[in-house]
């Protein structure tokens, strides 16, 4: 199985009127439940609108993202599926539920981390 990041940009849902957001939440949770039931769901969340803090290798903390950054992630889902096509199918369901386009990217495998998680019972 391969893990994929499915994400959307901050502001991608700004076109949705406030009174419709409960319906979007209900539709989104239905897709999450479907993915959980299918054994594909790993984790997901929306991100608060705030400036990120950037911690450098020397420990210095600065505010970010930098002004030249045009897009930041507004929310994401991680699925663990057999193929890119399956990840794209989940992204399509999320796009309909959230009423915004989704970006799909394959995560790099980390067998050592996976072994640690299995030992921890996760």
UniProtKB/TrEMBL annotation:
Write down the InterPro entries for this protein, in alphabetical order.
Dimeric_a/b-barrel, YCII
YCII-related domain mapped to chain residues: 44-106
SUPFAM superfamilies associated with the record: Dimeric alpha+beta barrel (SSF54909)
Q: Which Gene3D superfamilies match?
A: Dimeric alpha+beta barrel
What the record says about family reads: Belongs to the YciI family.
What protein is this chain from? YCII-related domain-containing protein
